[in-house]
């Protein structure tokens, strides 16, 4: 485990933005995805706690569904969160990119490092959070945690009609591919510039920095930082939490 008690270097502060305004339709009807219960606690609270577990993170900005802002504020107030960390809630936009931009817009001066984290990755370990922060501190303008792929990947010609067979175009070299997770970490000035100038071909915040011509580096991700998008993912997340309680008293 990393030493989460270590203080931040003088003058270097880290803030985290959690875009949580998505509806998460693949999980089925009901509350917004980030507010779905995981072991009796909303996924969003798990995600906030995961980032606040790092002593380097002194501010967490939650970008909430516009019609759920008051509820999200109440949730944060109702759950035990580290007193050393400040929390803000702002309404989200029509897209994830717009929601992240709204979170960036409310960051006070003095935060040099910004993390962007999916609320749907509620179980990311603090070691991963700290590894991303450390890489930005070391000079990288953008950092992503990622895992090697276990499966062979095929590039295909997408079918025009769902369910139709799709012809394979190529088989990329798996050793050169990674499955990217969050939190993604950035030099604040770099991320702000990316959001001000890049509007096309946006798949994640790191891809925006790539379009600026800057280098994005990868640090090891973690298998427990998976994204909860489908009902089976909820079952897996519950199992992870059960194992943590058994092994660590989590």
From TrEMBL:
Matching InterPro entries: IspD, IspD/TarI, IspD/TarI_cytidylyltransf_bact, ISPD_synthase_CS, Nucleotide-diphossugar_trans
GO:BP terms for this protein?
isopentenyl diphosphate biosynthetic process, methylerythritol 4-phosphate pathway
Gene Ontology terms for molecular function: 2-C-methyl-D-erythritol 4-phosphate cytidylyltransferase activity
Q: Which principal EC class is assigned to this enzyme?
A: transferase
Going by the UniProt record, its keywords in alphabetical order are: Isoprene biosynthesis, Nucleotidyltransferase, Transferase
What does the record give as the reaction this protein catalyses? 2-C-methyl-D-erythritol 4-phosphate + CTP + H(+) = 4-CDP-2-C-methyl-D-erythritol + diphosphate
Give its E.C. classification number. Answer: 2.7.7.60
Q: What does this protein do?
A: Catalyzes the formation of 4-diphosphocytidyl-2-C-methyl-D-erythritol from CTP and 2-C-methyl-D-erythritol 4-phosphate (MEP).
Q: Which family does it belong to?
A: Belongs to the IspD/TarI cytidylyltransferase family. IspD subfamily.
UniProt protein name = 2-C-methyl-D-erythritol 4-phosphate cytidylyltransferase
Annotated source species = Streptomyces spinoverrucosus
